[in-house]
């Protein structure tokens, strides 16, 4: 579901770049039909397919909620509650999706739509990485705090990027020096999350005996950050004329956020395991009984 959400956000970016956001003038149907065969073209298909994937994701979420409550006795107590909250989040996302059409792509609703999508994407990753098997090494030190900070900064930078996109600020600034402040704020906003990610990668590299999974996630974050900056510069130099680059910029940013979310969850689990195991290892022998044979 997290991967499907990532694909859905990239598809939404393609729909916006191709000016297909209002290709279906009504909602939730498209031209009053489930499948608008007569009006179907590339733009209509993008909008219709985006709605199809979003609806499928909602159905999967309902199945997941039902499954977690059905087998709640075999799961941590928080799992059914969290999945139910995620179902509420995706319902709210669907309402925002409808408002983007009925309110004619109002920029604040479009930005909120992206912010909620990123939040749902992160929630699915938190849920998945919290339940996957993992045995920590107990050497994460301050990595959980740093990765969480980097993830929060990337999240808000992504929202700011969504605001730039929804207001077409980059196009207007390049064409007539309008809305340049929004675009420049986005440029300046790149600095804090970049420094946070670089600090995280450096600290992870300097941490001895760090779990290979965390070390690999750190390398992935560095690669995605480098690629994101490169794609961003290329997109601007080409005046946002290459659709693939613009969509890739959105997808890579979301992937970087997801990588940091997974890193944070695993690092927190690593620390908690270390805090639990250490007291057990220091229990006095008087409390555990003699180890000598009778």
From TrEMBL:
**Source organism:** Acaryochloris marina (strain MBIC 11017)
* Subcellular location per the Swiss-Prot or TrEMBL entry: Membrane
Its membrane topology, per UniProt? Multi-pass membrane protein
Q: What is this protein called?
A: Cytochrome oxidase assembly protein, putative
Q: What GO terms in the biological process aspect are recorded for it?
A: heme A biosynthetic process
> What pathway annotation does it carry?
Porphyrin-containing compound metabolism
* One Gene Ontology cellular component annotation held by this UniProt entry: membrane
Entry keyword set: Cell membrane, Disulfide bond, Heme biosynthesis, Iron, Membrane, Metal-binding, Oxidoreductase, Transmembrane, Transmembrane helix
Note the superkingdom of the native organism.
Bacteria
Main subcellular localisation = membrane
Q: What residue ranges are annotated as transmembrane?
A: 48-69, 81-105, 111-131, 143-164, 184-205, 217-236, 248-268
Q: Which GO MF terms does the UniProt record name?
A: metal ion binding; oxidoreductase activity
Which Pfam family, any one of them, does this sequence belong to? COX15-CtaA
Quick check: keyword Acyltransferase in the entry? no
Please indicate if the UniProt record lists Phosphoprotein as a keyword. no
């Amino acid at each position: 579901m997290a991967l499907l959400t990532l694909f859905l956000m990239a598809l939404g970016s393609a729909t916006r770049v191709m000016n297909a956001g209002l290709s279906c003038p009504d909602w939730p149907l498209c031209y009053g039909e489930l499948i608008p065969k007569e009006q179907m073209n590339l733009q209509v298909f993008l909008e219709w397919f985006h709605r199809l994937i979003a609806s499928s994701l909602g159905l999967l979420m309902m199945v997941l909620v039902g499954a977690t409550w059905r087998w709640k006795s075999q799961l941590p107590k928080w799992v059914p509650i969290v999945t139910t909250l995620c179902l509420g989040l995706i319902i709210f996302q669907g309402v925002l999706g409808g408002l983007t059409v009925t309110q004619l792509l109002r920029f604040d609703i479009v930005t909120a739509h992206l912010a909620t999508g990123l939040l749902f994407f992160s929630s699915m990753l938190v849920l998945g990485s919290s339940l996957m098997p993992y045995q920590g090494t107990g050497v994460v030190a301050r990595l959980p705090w740093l990765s969480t900070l980097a993830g929060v900064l990337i999240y808000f930078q992504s929202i700011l990027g969504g605001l730039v996109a929804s207001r077409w600020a980059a196009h207007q600034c390049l064409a007539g020096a309008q809305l340049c402040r929004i675009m420049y704020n986005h440029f300046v906003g790149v600095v804090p999350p970049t420094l946070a990610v670089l600090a995280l990668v450096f600290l992870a590299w300097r941490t001895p005996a760090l779990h290979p999974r965390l070390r690999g996630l750190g390398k992935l974050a560095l690669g995605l950050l480098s690629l994101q900056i490169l794609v961003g510069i290329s997109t601007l130099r080409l005046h946002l004329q290459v659709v693939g680059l613009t969509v890739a910029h959105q997808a890579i940013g979301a992937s970087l956020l997801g990588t940091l979310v997974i890193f944070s969850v695993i690092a927190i689990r690593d620390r908690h395991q270390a805090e639990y195991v250490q007291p057990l290892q220091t229990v006095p022998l008087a409390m555990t009984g003699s180890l000598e044979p009778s």
